[in-house]
Write the structure tokens for this entry.
Amino acid sequence: MLAIDLDGTLLDPAGRVSARNAEAIARAREAGLAVTVCTGRGLAESHFALRAIGQEEPVVVAGGSMIACPRTEATLHRFPMHPTLSSRLVEAILEHGHAALVLKDRHAAGYDYLVVTGEQQHAVDPTTQWWFETMRVNVRLARSIAEDEHPDHTVRVGACARPAALEGVEALVRAEFGGLVCFHNFPAVVEADKDADSVHILELFDARADKWSAIRHLAAERGVEAERICAIGDQVNDLTMIRGAGLGVAMGNAIPDVRAAAGRITRSNAEDGVAWAVERVLVGEW
């Protein structure tokens, strides 16, 4: 099995899938590898990339909290957040002056995001607004999490802001929620003319939810052992799959922790690093 991240990995710096990367994935399938995409994006935010590689097999989305079918858009498996936990996290985000971004299982709830602004009506930051408009996701607004009509269908709670502005929320999560949540804080995808490190996204999940948990679920259904999985990624939310896979490959542009955990390092996402890694695997060099 071949498990590939999207942003910073399969997608080049302009957010596109290169012809060489698409061709390498096609050759991997022809050689008998099951291919899955493993992304922090929701399914609706991933369709353009999935179409570019002709993905029909299940994919891991929303940071590992869901496995979905790209053809039918059905959710095949998920690690939902307990409503009490998600509610407490939303309140913590609101207390620190941010709108809370509540990601839903779209197949179950009928929409993608519930944005909770609080009684003070915290503004949705410009990067999130741009993302919603660009990805054409279905968004609902609420002042209170009590207005959530689908509390059982939440898979992620998050906030988007400048890095320093998220420090208080992250410190609170570490102190009060400990092993109850899996969380990541990393640069958000921004418009082409923006500083890539100017805005971060804090993502909070059920403690069971990460990319490796979802990959293991998929692999078990197909009788594929961990030793026969190659995972390629670049960011903090890729660490579990890089460490767990038989072959963990870090992109040339990967953060230091991912590079340190990987068995191999490929070229950057500006240099068709996915294709270069797949080619090494197919010839038996890796």
